[in-house]
Specification:
Elements (H helix, E strand, L loop, with lengths): L14 E5 L3 H9 L4 E5 L14 H13 L3 E6 L11 H11 L3 E4 L2 H10 L4 E4 L8 H9 L4 E3 L6 H9 L6 E8 L11 H6 L17 E3 L7 E3 L14 E3 L4 H6 L4 E4 L6 H20 L8 H6 L8 E2 L22 E11 L4 E6 L3 E2 L3 E5 L6 E4 L13 E2 L5 E5 L8 E5 L3
Parallel strand pairs: 1-2, 1-11, 2-3, 3-4, 4-5, 5-6, 6-7, 7-11, 10-12
Antiparallel strand pairs: 7-10, 8-9, 13-14, 13-20, 14-19, 15-18, 16-17, 16-20
Helix pairs in contact: 1-2, 1-9, 2-3, 3-4
Amino acid sequence: MERTEHQNNRKGVPEVLAPAGDFERLETAVRYGADAVYLGGKAFGMRAASANFGPEDLKRAVAHCHKHGVKLYLTCNTLPRNHELKQLPEFFQVSREAGVDALIVADIGILMEAKRLVPEIDIHISTQAGVVNYLTANELYRLGAKRVVLARELSFEEIREIRQNTPPELEIECFVHGAMCVSFSGRCLISQYMTHRDANRGECSQPCRWKYHLMEEKRPGEYFPIEERDGGTYLYNARDMCMIDHIPELAEAGITSFKIEGRAKSFYYTACITNAYRTAVDEYLKKPSGYQLPDWLGDEVTKVSHRQYCTGFYFGPPEDGQCYEDGGYIRTYDVAAIVKGFNQETGRLSVIQRNRFFEGDCLEVLAPGMKPWEIIVSALENGKGERITSANHPMGEVSFRGTTVPAGAILRKRMSN
């Protein structure tokens, strides 16, 4: 399939890579500035809980991405068992027919089979492979890998050393934002052990987010907090990663692609975080030597549901990498509506409601590449043109007085305490 080049999808310019758990999130990622998206098919993906993409959906997704000059990478990064291997030829054939730009793989056998069956598709080595040194990166390159997604446990110093000792043609991708796994490079056994849901097959039940107490063998039913706190301890609960404050360091380390975690997250998360990193990268490219992150971009990453943030392992093992107090998310905003269009003649803004909002509410506009601004809901009407005091019907169309807002923009509302 033909595709046009994204203005920032050039050699030497960091790629903003966004997650897409379904078609709505894919459209959102494209709208809010992703250079590339990654998603899963119905098999061999590490996010079994996401809707994912069947063969026809995948073709449609690739067509939409390529129309807008965006690349699409398909995950094939589980560790498949013997009985699953017979599905591989069909999976590869579907990938070829859809026109995906790359396959993300973790298993060396899958890598070699892909090179034999679909040699025209680029191969990216998943973070699940745990690449932590240039020797491994070089061998994978010799085997045909176009890109390595480095292990999240690496520091800037280690990443720079890998970049300096690998061919410039080998692309380097690193996670820059999202949930962190308590295990090494996502290879976790806790879920399988406790719930018989295998994290290495995309079925993680996230027991690392649960609260734990200590129980002594001869005192059954008598629970002790692991620390001296009444609520117990979230022993394994890692903070989320956020590198929005460190765009220059990421670029100067030689990272080709800035990857955002979150295929299981909402379309709003995809919009907000993709927009933040897209805008931050663009601002950096305008003036690399004097770059300073705009304050509003630092605020944006706090307006999605998230755990406390840290910088992962980029500056060495984090001293503040765990959330011991609770396993919950910080959430300050709700999506009120999606903008359908603005009528210049009537001066009214038509929106599709997602959550309840009221006449007189102050809503914030999240539009691609723009600093958010506020609008007040006034003269609220339902789809029949009748005045109403509140929008009560999710996915229903309503309108109110407003100004020009791009179609597809998100209107969000600060949650009350």
